[in-house]
Amino acid sequence: GAGVSQSPSNKVTEKGKDVELRCDPISGHTALYWYRQRLGQGLEFLIYFQGNSAPDKSGLPSDRFSAERTGGSVSTLTIQRTQQEDSAVYLCASSLSGGADTQYFGPGTRLTVL
Amino acid sequence: DAKTTQPPSMDCAEGRAANLPCNHSTISGNEYVYWYRQIHSQGPQYIIHGLKNNETNEMASLIITEDRKSSTLILPHATLRDTAVYYCIVIVWGVSGGSNYKLTFGKGTLLTVNP
């Protein structure tokens, strides 16, 4: 079946511009997660959705970062006034019911801020 | 969560079995062993998980020692496309609240499958 999809696969933007990253989870998965992975580094948790609610936003680095999820499905991660340190691969994962349930990852969006 | 220790790198000949070890000597009773891999420039891919029994799926087998202090991921017939960094992690189950959904990967093992 279809896995987690993300778009765009690559995004190059200029410092100060806003970007939107999209995630389509596996159909029927109630939980959705956003992570960031800098080059050669590990996973950095950003936010966790259960349905349309985000019980844990603790990983969002600053108020320039926001995320929403609508219809219990698609999620959008928005970064406002991008900075060069925002350059990374942004990964989305989904799981059937949340908690420690197995997470399945998308291919990621590679963001480059010039 | 218990920490895991993996060798930094391993080589395997194409077509042979790849056996990737992982130590998790401080694992507790409600922690599962999970394996993911990350092929260069791709998102992490779930492989397999287990609690105490050996597990097998279409990708791999997971052998967990009786004392659960170590495990081995087995790719029975490695191909060039199996070249990746393999991550062994432990995740707490059955705990309400907490943040056991925040996955963190260590350095992992870089498996290189050679032709």
Kindly describe this structure:
With 114 residues, chain A is mostly beta strands. In chain A, 0% of the residues lie in helices and 50% in strands. Chain B is mainly β and 115 residues long. Chain B is built from no helices and 9 strands. Chain B is globular and about 45 Å long. Chain B starts with 8 loop residues before the first strand and ends with a strand. The mean pLDDT of chain B is 91.
Compute the gyration radius of chain A: what is it?
13 Å
Q: Could you say which structural class the secondary elements and strand pairing of chain A correspond to? A: mainly beta
What integer is the average pLDDT of chain A? 94
Helix content of chain B: under 10%
Per the principal axes of the C-alpha atoms, what is the gross shape of chain B?
A: globular
Strand order of the largest sheet of chain B: 1-9-8-3-4
Tell me the greatest interface. Answer: A-B, 26 and 21 residues
Largest sheet features of chain B: 5 strands, mixed
Task: Name some characteristics of this structure.
heterodimer; A: 114 residues; mainly beta; 11 strands; B: 115 residues; 4-stranded antiparallel beta sheet; 0% helix; 45% strand; globular
Describe the secondary-structure layout.
The complex is a heterodimer of chains A (114) and B (115).
Chain A: E1 5-7, E2 10-13, E3 19-24, E4 31-37, E5 43-50, E6 53-56, E7 65-69, E8 75-79, E9 88-95, E10 104-105, E11 109-113
Parallel strand pairs in A: 2-11
Antiparallel strand pairs in A: 1-3, 3-8, 4-5, 4-9, 5-6, 7-8, 9-10, 9-11
Chain B: E1 9-13, E2 18-23, E3 31-38, E4 45-50, E5 55-56, E6 61-64, E7 70-75, E8 84-92, E9 109-114
Parallel strand pairs in B: 1-9
Antiparallel strand pairs in B: 2-7, 3-4, 3-8, 5-6, 6-7, 8-9
